[in-house]
Amino acid sequence: PKEIFLKDYKMPDYYFDTVDLKFLLGEEKTIVNSKIMVFPRVEGSKFPLVLNGDDVKLISIKVNNEDLKEEDYVLDSRHLTILSPPTGSFTLEIVNEICPQNNTSLEGLYKSSGNFCTQCEAEGFRKITFYQDRPDIMAKYTCRIEADKSLYPVLLSNGNLIEQGDLEGGKHYALWEDPFKKPSYLFALVAGKLASRDDSFITRSGRKISLKIWTPAEDLPKTEHAMYSLKAAMKWDEDVFGLEYDLDLFNVVAVPDFNMGAMENKSLNIFNSKLVLASPETASDGDYAAILGVIGHEYFHNWTGNRVTCRDWFQLSLKEGLTVFRDQEFSSDMGSRAVKRIADVSRLRNYQFPQDSGPMAHPVRPHSYIKMDNFYTVTVYEKGAEVVRMYKTLLGSQGFRKGMDLYFKRHDGQAVTCEDFYAAMRDANDADFANFLLWYSQAGTPQVKVTSSYNSDGRTFTLKFRQEVPPTPGQAVKEPMFIPVALGLLDSSGNNLSLSSIYHDGVLQSISDNDQPVYSTVLRLTKKEEEFVFTNIPERPVPSLLRGYSAPVRMETDLSDDDLFFLLAYDSDEFNRWEAGQVLARKLMLQLVSDHQQNKTLVLNSKFVEGLRSILTDSSLDKEFIAKAITLPGEGEIMDMMEVADPDAVHAVRTFIRKQLANALKAEFLAAVENNRSSAAYVFNHPELARRALKNTALAYLALLEDAETANLVLNEYKNASNMTDQFAALVAIAQKPGETRDTILADFYAKWQHDYLVVNKWLALQAMSDIPGNIENVKNLLNHKAFDLRNPNKVYSLIGGFCGSTINFHAKDGSGYEFLGEVVMQLDKINPQVASRMVSAFSRWKRYDEHRQNHAKAQLEKILSANGLSENVFEIASKSLA
Ligand code: B3K
Ligand code: ZN
């Protein structure tokens, strides 16, 4: 397999102006006719024209209407090269054949539940026809689709419907035209039996946009929330960024077989049905929130991704980091900002930090890849979003908006780079960003150590920072980064002190330039070590550092437990209030893990219990915030902080603390359940979902108790639940403990929901993730359950992905979990390499565990690598993991 490098980027020799596609969709094969207007980048130049093609059968090729002779082109398994094209512009006409029916990779044109659909990003268009399949080739497309009318009554592609009509032999056709230039990865086609929910949106300039969400007819009632989300996103992008939709029609199609969450094809978004379909009975609050976020995300791509796209795939974060940032902000504005931030930071810590410290660590803009699909990662997406957020932290809302405006003004219709985004932010604000660009090129999570001291004579408070970026594959030595640290200083009654000026680098800087008091500021760290001295500080303050998590770093402070309890109780920054609790919990858990390893008796610090009690009973706090604040850091997060990760000890300790809390706070948890039951019909809004979150978090604690009274309570919650959020939460609570009740209720749930594949996937995932000893047998049996199918990505993510998330069973000492995954990966790779490669990633942290586990994991990776016909996708992850 060949590695591709950013430094080797070359501009294309030829550009495409227009592309006219014709599809004859058939039951055995599909014929594609592509007519392209080609022009050279440099007039008069003479270069071969190299087209990509993957699994496409060439039928004919014409240049300027004449058949090309065999000696004028070369065909290999991946390319079609036209050796000496005419100088100047010319037309190229290719006819080829493909077999969507046999395409199980779900990339290119394939079938899902009897319908045709496409997925072209990143490099799937080359599975449809021969093309310069790279994002800097932007062209105007038309697309004519011909198909059997009764089997495929609906024919969709990008842009506007220009013409449609009937043809001989029971066929019909539709002709679509997209007036905007686009890269091939945004091309889409859908044909099938679908019905639509129709609505409209009036833009701020008064244009009426027709909105359609397409699904099988029986699922239409479940598209209401998706339509609501779409309209909210359209409005939000106008209000916050001044961005209006640019065509008269916006289509969303939901398909059950999809590798990823969704795809932002121009005016024809295609979605994994999991992220469109919802009803109160079948979807949880989490599903509703995910739909809101992802419908928003794909819609926002219309500007950040489609109108302005990426020059090459290394720049992926240019569109993904930015669009994730935009969807995070959208969801914040629609719900609770603090809680959304907490959820996003938890995700970063639980998934991105481990990636950043493992063998797959790569910069937000990777330097190389073997298979681009492997780089749709938490680093490119989530850390990329943090990088965008830092611009906003540094520039403020208005400055950030100025930067965005300039970015669109300069680059609309272009394929650009991360530097172009940086330059727009800088130039619009005349800003000095020092070494900020390192965030795009240096991998690894920076570690920042802070020490503080108070001088009562001089009334000064000093913060000393020391930063270090750990080595990552291919990057042994790192430069110091530009780290914005938002902070405030709390006085002894918990109020923010007014900040007047700071000494830094021997210069006294005033914090405010008018006489208004300032209570928080953003320090800019740029060096390995530096010091900031706050003046006029009347008493020793407790610093609240990195407020709102202003930079994606691991911060270690010299704050005492008392300081942390103080912040937990008083910080005005809600994020940092939560964070103080998490820091305490992490310390406590690590200490107990070490006690457990030394066979000491475990004792839970009573101050910690009291801290949580006061949060739990504080009626001034948002209920969803309370739910987050009383949830312990995940087992993965703790394992990630250990020298040698010990799954058994971490699981035992986390369970121990949860049981202790359940006992100590039983009365408070009971009250939380009693007082927060859903009153009326299910509504998805912040106050309602916050009540449910608190009630269900409390319920999960209570279910750990051994008395009959709470066991009954939990069972009744399950039986009386009137929506999926409550029903599933009760099921999760019950499923924690092995036994007859668990078995009966799991069976009951399946019997109730077997007709609904999305609900059944939840049922699969819940069982797969279970930490009940020996659960692997159950998972193996589920592989053969009629509800499971290795060809459907969602089912694989639920059952196999779920299993890899179980601390105890995946990491079983005897290696049975690893062996199971190894076998599944090899089977899966023959069906769908992208999905197989996501699954094999569960091995990538194998070196974090003890020698015994290491040997088992290594053996599996070696076995996978020696398999015949291994995909490049799996090869890349497995070989880098072993290196
Ligand atoms: N851009 C798509 C991801 C495509 C993944 C291709 N392997 C979804 C998104 O981020 O919006
Ligand atoms: Zn995206």
From TrEMBL:
Keyword Hydrolase part of the UniProt annotation: yes
Ranges for domain Peptidase M1 alanyl aminopeptidase Ig-like fold: 444-557
GO molecular function: alanyl aminopeptidase activity; metallopeptidase activity; zinc ion binding
Gene3D superfamilies according to UniProt: 2.60.40.1840, 3.30.2010.30, Neutral Protease Domain 2 (1.10.390.10), Peptidase M1, alanyl aminopeptidase, C-terminal domain (1.25.50.10), tricorn interacting facor f3 domain (2.60.40.1730)
Cofactor(s) it depends on: Zn(2+)
Enzyme Commission number, as recorded: 3.4.11.14
Reactions performed catalytically: Release of an N-terminal amino acid, preferentially alanine, from a wide range of peptides, amides and arylamides
InterPro entries attached to this UniProt entry: Aminopeptidase_N-like_N, Aminopeptidase_N-like_N_sf, PepN_Ig-like_sf, Peptidase_M1, Peptidase_M1_dom, Peptidase_M1_pepN, Peptidase_M1_pepN_C, Peptidase_M1_pepN_C_sf
Residues annotated as domain Aminopeptidase N-like N-terminal: 52-186
Ranges for domain Peptidase M1 alanyl aminopeptidase C-terminal: 561-883
Domain of life where this protein originates: Eukaryota
Keyword Metal-binding belongs to the record: yes
GO cellular component, one term: chloroplast
GO biological process terms on file: proteolysis
Ranges where the Peptidase M1 membrane alanine aminopeptidase domain occurs: 227-436
Keywords assigned: Aminopeptidase, Hydrolase, Metal-binding, Metalloprotease, Protease, Zinc
PANTHER family in UniProt: PUROMYCIN-SENSITIVE AMINOPEPTIDASE
Similarity comment: family membership: Belongs to the peptidase M1 family.
Protein's name in the database: Puromycin-sensitive aminopeptidase
Organism this protein belongs to: Cucurbita maxima (Pumpkin)
Lineage of producing organism: Eukaryota, Viridiplantae, Streptophyta, Embryophyta, Tracheophyta
Gene: LOC111469009
